Each structure stands twice: as C-alpha cells, then as structure tokens.
Amino acid sequence: MTDKPEEIRHSTGFAPIADMRAAMTFLTRFPVGGRHRALDACAWAFPIAGIAVGVTGGAVFWLAGWMGLPPWIAAFLTLTATALVTGALHEDGLADAADGLGAGGSVDRKLEIMRDSRIGGYGALALMLATGIKAAAIASFLPGLSGATAILAVHILSRAILPGVMAALPPASASGVAASVGRPRLGAALVALTLGAGSAIGLMGLCAGLVALAAVVASALVFGLLLRRSLGGYNGDTIGLLEQLSEIAIMLALLIAAASFNILVQTGAAFG
User: Which of 231, 198, 232 has the alpha carbon at shortest distance from 212?
Assistant: First the structure.
C-alpha cells in the first residue's frame, strides 16, 4: 500500500465519477486515468474498486469450474488473477506490516522496517499463510455462479471496511504516505460500509450477507485496537494487511456459517 502516493492529488468538491476513477487507480491496475482526486475524498468509492477486482476473480473461478479444473487449481488461478489486477498491492502491505509488527521494538523501528522493501521472515510466513488459507477457502466454495458471487462479495466488503479504520485512527507517522493523502471523513466511511453491506446482502442474501458484514466489522475492530496499541495509528502497509485479514475473516465466517447450517438441518432431520 505504499507505491502509489503520487498518483492521487488533493482536490475539493463532490465528483462521484472522478472519485470512482481515483479509487480504481489507487487500488487496481485498471487504466481508468483517475489521478486528480484526493484519497480522503474518494475513499467512499473503495467498494467500487472491489467490484472490479471481485468480478475478475469471480469470472476466473467460474471459468475454471466450467472447464472442469480441480477446485484447488481454480482457487490458485483466482488468487493469481486478483493479485495481477491489483498489482499485489495488499499482499505487499501484508508482508511489510507483518515484518514490522512482528519484529517489535519502538514505533519508529516498526515503521522503519515496514519501509524496507525487502521481505523478512514474518512477511514471508504471513504471505504463505494468507495465500494458503484463502486458497483453501475458495476451493471449498460451491462451484459455478454461487462461488463466483461469494468471491465478488468478499472483495467488495473487504475494501468497504478500510475507510472506517482510516477515519477512526490517526496516521502512525506525520511524514508517511497515510498522512500525506489525508484521512477519510466519517461520512465517507459510512457510505463505503453501506455500499459494501448492501452489495453483500444483495449478492448472497440476507443471512450470508449479515454473516459477512459481522465478520469484517469484528475483524476491523480488533485490528484497529491492536494498531492503536502497537503503532498509535495506521499506515499504508497496515491497511493492506487489514484488507487481507478482512478477506480471510469473511471467507471463514461464510464457511463456518454454511457448516453450522448443514449441522442444524441434519439435526432437525434426525429429530424431526
């Protein structure tokens, strides 16, 4: 989350199309030309960028299933596609943040480690674990349109939660990228979360959508508290880490809810 600070310039006024293009430019590699809006102004449109990423991943997942590829191959192809369209932005933040937070020490020391582009032991381990867990979860999704829809919802909601944490916490460093691009306002964060929640419910239904929403909000609350205690705020790398944790939390919550529902159905059939 640290390689695109120069592409978003500060501006004023409400311009939804420009905001959406700016969010797409910051969070994806799609060439939409949005380089003239402040990140704090366009944060409400983060879920829109999630739609682009989710459609790409969902389409690859559906196509792999249609071609008869095994679930694990479909899962890794899906992860490859989403990493390509984002430039592995969040994965890079995950690795850097894991190195910094895992090393311990003072806040300045942690931030210094995060600014180092080299991947250390904690970063490599975090990448392997996150990739493995996400691949296993995606491989467990129902094939076809149901799984593709879930992937789309995951990518929308995992980006919809980011402005909320950015609005609630201060930047960890006054000289970092997070400070230079500005903090989203609470209203923008609420719009983003509303768009994400509405999309998840619309795509997966009320029950699954609420499960996903609860998972992403809970993970953001816990992570936000940990960030406040560890760094005193956030930076671009920790926002990338949050996005990855949010994806994992949503996927696992959906799988746990599905398994619990099946157990309840089987129990009811046995005693009905």
Answer: 198
- The structural domains of the chain, with segments of one domain joined by +, span 5-267
* Burial class of 225 by CB neighbour count within 10 A (0 to 12, 13 to 18, 19+): exposed
**β strands within the chain, DSSP E:** none
Q: List the structure tokens of 62.
A: 């559906």
Question: Which residues of the chain register pLDDT less than 50?
Answer: 3, 5-9
Which residues, 6+ apart, have CB-to-CB distance to 69 below 8 Å?
77
Which residues lie across from 171 on neighbouring strands? 234
Task: Give the tens place of pLDDT for each residue, 204-236.
Answer: 999 999 999 999 999 999 999 999 999 999 999
| CA 193/CA 196 separation, integer angstroms | 5
**DSSP state string for 139-205:** HHSPTTHHHHHHHHHHHHHHHHTHHHHHHHS-BS-TTSHHHHH-PPPHHHHHHHHHHHHHHHHHHH-
pTM confidence score: 0.91
Neighbours of 268 (CB within 10 A): 9
Nearest alpha carbon to residue 176 among 105, 255, 96, 99: 96
Closest CA to 83 of 235, 239, 213, 243: 243
Q: For residues 226 and 210, what is the distance between their CA atoms, to the nearest angstrom?
A: 24
End-to-end alpha-carbon separation of the chain, Å? 53
